[in-house]
């Protein structure tokens, strides 16, 4: 411990650690500045926003921006948040359910055309969804679902299947075959094995997918924007966008609406971040 | 075992024919499990895409019956690539946006991952904080940045003028709009790439570095000959997914500039949206979607080839 070489090493290490934390902190400040700006603006009265001093904390904690965007007469964001939830939950559930079925078949069975089918399903992940925009718009008109939440639910279900299938197939491949075979010998049926043995095992993978799908679908703007029109079927993202047209300079209202619209995904992320980050890094690290 | 051995000899896409009745019955179960998802994909993904390809060869206003669309052959494609200056401009802008964004995300993502990978306290907390913008809705973020970069009331201009510099147009300046959009996109997604690179770095065994240190390798050599080659799979994933995403940018541009000023920030998908839903030219818009799809496919193949081949050489 007393040797000078080690002593110098300790100081060099401390210096390096100091520089490291300094850089990280500077970056963090830069990262958090926009968030700070949004929060501060959301809690300011309209007069104060226009008067200047935008970086300063609000003189009084004004909740009028939130009240205004939630009010059915002006922003109606309460209804839109409700719509977003009514859209996101079933769409996330359906895409995960279908992906689990396909993933189970591809991960645990050998059948005619399984390789081809796998490529077909996963290729869907690389297709730009915009290609389907016009036909889907027309299709939803033709089957009478245009301007309903069902249209958006269906499309998010379909577009979620590839990623859910991939994740579930990879997961089922890690489940030992012996488990299935033991159950078969005990006389379990194929669907009994799936529902009573396999499904309970998949809970961690399902949690990963649930956080991912909830976030994607909640945050999506393009599909609900194209497929819905009337207020009764508008989602929160379309609602935030509409505020821009309605009050061109209502910065406080927009900040409040953006914060409200980001709360559910933020909430999910903070509580399920372990699953979330695992889900997002899944494809990359496994190659 | 027999089935497994014969499987190896066959091409990957050729079906396997089970021998026993039991195996055939199990195969039926597999089909039962995949039936619903496959039907959903055929009807709502493959069907629309094929129809879109068919529409791109016609002139169509969306309202007239599909059976009466006048045939136009490849003229939509020819028009876009030779006579539509806005499309070519939007293509250039989209490339600029993608190259700038992917470059910045890769360099910054790897840089911060290296910083966070050293022995620091509370790595999980740093990770969460950098990750926050990633899960925020692109649209909500875009609306907030439109305010932050506003010419007259914006927070950034407030600071710039306070320290005596001239007011900047940012999103409303023909030379700055696209760059500002790149900045916002990098702000939003760099946290994702930090986390990806971090996961990749943590997958590299410490033994390699220990061995290198015994051989007297410096930090820079370690990075060049151990870290970088072993990160290739992650690098491949980052570059490919980021490029695909960036080429499809819509929400951000739609909510901030709308392609203005003078189409200086017009992107392909926004131009496609305008062509389809503002001007009702479905054939032309479908052709745009297919050109974009072709470009994405081509770039993806090239990137996979480049990054994979080099990985094998090492």
Structure description:
The complex is a heterodimer of chains A (287) and B (314). Chain A is mostly helical and 287 residues long. Helices cover 77% and strands 0% of the residues of chain A. Chain A is built from 13 helices and no strands. In chain A, helix 4 crosses helix 10 (203-219) and helix 7 packs antiparallel against helix 10. The longest helix of chain A has 39 residues, at 4-42. The model of chain A is unreliable at 1-5 (pLDDT under 50). In chain B, 73% of the residues lie in helices and 0% in strands. The model of chain B is unreliable at 1-7 (pLDDT under 50). Chain B has 314 residues and is mainly alpha-helical. Chain B is globular, with a radius of gyration of 25 Å. Chain B has helices at 2-9, 21-55, 75-82, 85-117, 123-135, 138-148, 155-162, 177-202, 206-214, 219-230, 232-247, 251-256, 268-278, 282-313. In chain B, helix 3 (75-82) crosses helix 14, helix 5 (123-135) crosses helix 8 and helix 8 (177-202) packs antiparallel against helix 11. Classes of the chains: A mainly alpha (287), B mainly alpha (314).
What's the structural blueprint in terms of helices and strands?
The complex is a heterodimer of chains A (287) and B (314).
Chain A: H1 4-42, H2 46-51, H3 64-70, H4 77-108, H5 114-123, H6 133-142, H7 149-174, H8 177-185, H9 190-201, H10 203-219, H11 222-227, H12 236-246, H13 251-286
Helix pairs in contact in A: 1-13, 3-13, 4-7, 4-10, 4-12, 5-7, 7-10, 8-9, 10-13, 12-13
Chain B: H1 2-9, H2 21-55, H3 75-82, H4 85-117, H5 123-135, H6 138-148, H7 155-162, H8 177-202, H9 206-214, H10 219-230, H11 232-247, H12 251-256, H13 268-278, H14 282-313
Helix pairs in contact in B: 3-14, 4-8, 4-11, 5-8, 8-11, 11-14, 13-14
């Amino acid at each position: 411990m007393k040797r000078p070489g080690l002593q110098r090493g300790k100081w060099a290490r401390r210096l390096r650690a100091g520089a490291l934390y300094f850089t990280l902190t500077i970056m963090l400040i830069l990262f958090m500045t926009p968030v700070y700006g949004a929060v501060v603006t959301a809690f300011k009265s309209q007069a104060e926003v226009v008067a200047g001093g935008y970086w300063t904390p609000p003189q009084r904690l004004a909740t009028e921006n939130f009240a205004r965007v939630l009010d059915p007469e002006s922003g109606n964001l309460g209804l839109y948040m409700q719509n977003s939830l009514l859209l996101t939950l079933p769409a996330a559930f359906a895409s995960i359910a279908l992906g689990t079925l396909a993933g189970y078949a591809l991960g645990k069975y050998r059948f005619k055309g399984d390789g081809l089918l796998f490529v077909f399903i996963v290729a869907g992940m690389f297709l730009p969804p915009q290609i389907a925009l016009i036909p889907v718009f027309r299709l939803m008109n033709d089957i009478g679902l245009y301007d309903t939440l069902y249209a958006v639910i269906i499309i998010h279900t379909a577009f979620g299947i590839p990623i859910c299938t991939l994740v579930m197939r990879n997961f089922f491949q890690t489940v030992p075959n012996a488990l299935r075979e033991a159950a078969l010998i005990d006389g379990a049926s194929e669907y009994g094995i799936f529902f009573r043995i396999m499904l309970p095992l998949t809970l961690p993978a399902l949690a990963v997918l649930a956080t991912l799908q909830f976030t994607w679908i909640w945050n999506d703007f393009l599909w609900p924007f194209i497929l819905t029109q009337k207020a009764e079927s508008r989602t929160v993202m379309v609602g935030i966008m509409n505020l821009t047209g309605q009050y061109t300079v209502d910065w406080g209202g927009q900040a409040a609406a953006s914060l409200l619209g980001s709360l559910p995904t933020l909430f999910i992320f903070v509580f399920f971040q372990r699953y979330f980050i695992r889900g997002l890094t899944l494809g990359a690290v496994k190659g | 075992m027999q089935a497994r051995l014969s499987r190896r000899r066959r091409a990957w896409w050729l079906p396997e024919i089970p021998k026993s009745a039991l195996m055939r019955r199990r195969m039926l179960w597999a089909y039962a499990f995949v039936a619903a998802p496959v039907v959903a994909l055929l009807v709502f993904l493959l069907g629309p895409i094929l129809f879109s390809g068919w529409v791109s060869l016609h002139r169509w206003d969306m309202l007239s019956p599909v059976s009466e669309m006048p045939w136009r052959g490849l003229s939509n494609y020819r028009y876009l690539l030779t006579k539509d200056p806005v499309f070519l401009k939007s293509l250039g802008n989209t490339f600029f946006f993608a190259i700038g964004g992917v470059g910045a995300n890769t360099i910054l993502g790897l840089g911060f991952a290296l910083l966070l990978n050293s022995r620091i306290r509370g790595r999980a907390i740093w990770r969460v904080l950098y990750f926050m913008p990633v899960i925020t809705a692109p649209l909500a973020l875009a609306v907030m940045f439109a305010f932050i970069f506003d010419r007259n009331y914006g927070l950034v201009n407030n600071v710039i003028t306070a320290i005596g510099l001239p007011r900047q147009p940012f999103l409303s300046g023909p030379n700055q709009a696209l760059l500002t959009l790149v900045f916002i996109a990098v702000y939003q997604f760099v946290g994702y790439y930090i986390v990806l690179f971090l996961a990749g770095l943590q997958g590299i065994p410490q033994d390699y570095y220990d061995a290198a240190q015994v051989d007297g390798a410096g930090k820079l050599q370690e990075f060049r000959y151990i870290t970088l080659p072993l990160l290739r799979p992650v690098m491949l994933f980052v570059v490919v997914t980021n490029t695909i995403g960036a080429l499809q940018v819509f929400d951000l541009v739609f909510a901030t500039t709308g392609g203005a000023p003078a189409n200086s920030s017009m992107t392909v998908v926004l131009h496609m949206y305008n062509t389809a839903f503002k001007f009702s030219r479905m054939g032309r818009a479908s052709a745009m979607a297919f050109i974009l799809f072709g470009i994405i496919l081509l770039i993806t193949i090239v990137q996979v080839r480049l990054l994979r081949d080099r990985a094998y050489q090492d």
